[in-house]
Amino acid sequence: MQTDLLRTVTRRLFLDRQAAFWLERLHPTWSPHELRARVVEVITETPDARTFVLRPNRHWAGHRAGQHVNLGIEIDGVRLTRSYSLTAPARADGLLPITVKAIEGGKVSRHLCHDARMGDIVDLGQAFGEMTLPALPRGAFLLLAAGSGITPLMALVRDLAGQGMPADTTLLYWVRRRGEACFVDELRALAAAHPGFRFRLLLTREAAQAADEAEGRIDDALLGAHAGDLSARQVMACGP
Q: How many Å apart are CA 40 and CA 55, to the nearest integer?
């Protein structure tokens, strides 16, 4: 009896491995067990930041705006994994955008921004993270982003905009220079379309020029000037 059971288990494992082997050669995202995705679009956001639009396979379980994923790629024969935020809520087409900034000494981020192409296959983990909106957003929100920390907050802003901006929302976004800022045109368009959404681009190494720009690092005076009474707001913050 035990011998028959062992043979059955061994045969099943062999068949599963054979199936996985041939599926991966027919289509790299086809896998009986593993979550993978194909890069279907690459968008240049700034000189050193790219948005990668991913099409996951059937193992993707979904996500909420503000969450992130572990992404795995192979570089020089070594499998490396990094965590990146999804920059949009769940989409009807099932695609997943992540935005990556190439950082000095960052092996994965620099590889993605300089070498990744449409058609590349990446490993994914399921979405995780608790910086998400309530089911029915109400009241007032203050979103504080610095550098690449804009990515999960951009997903929250897009989620709120998709619901008609049901909560009063202010986004303060710090960068050293305006050329480093992602999504500025979209954020300005959303601010123009939704009276309840205010956007400020805060520069630490350049002078402000546009009406929605200001200068300075975070402090009580700056927050008071641009966000008002903090005790009346739910605050979410993310840095690089």
A: 7
Return the CATH number at 203. 3.40.50.80
pTM: 0.85
> CA-to-CA distance for 173 and 63, rounded, in angstroms?
24
Label residue 21 by pLDDT band (50, 70, 90): very low
List, for residues 84-107, the tens digit of each pLDDT value: 999 999 999 999 999 999 998 899
Is the domain of 196 the same as that of 231? yes
| pLDDT given at position 22 | 44
Q: Indicate whether 42 and 87 sit together in one domain.
A: yes
| Measured distance CA(132)–CA(134) in Å, rounded | 7
The range of the structural domain enclosing residue 68 comes to 29-124
With beta carbons less than 8 A apart as the criterion, state whether 222 and 215 touch: no
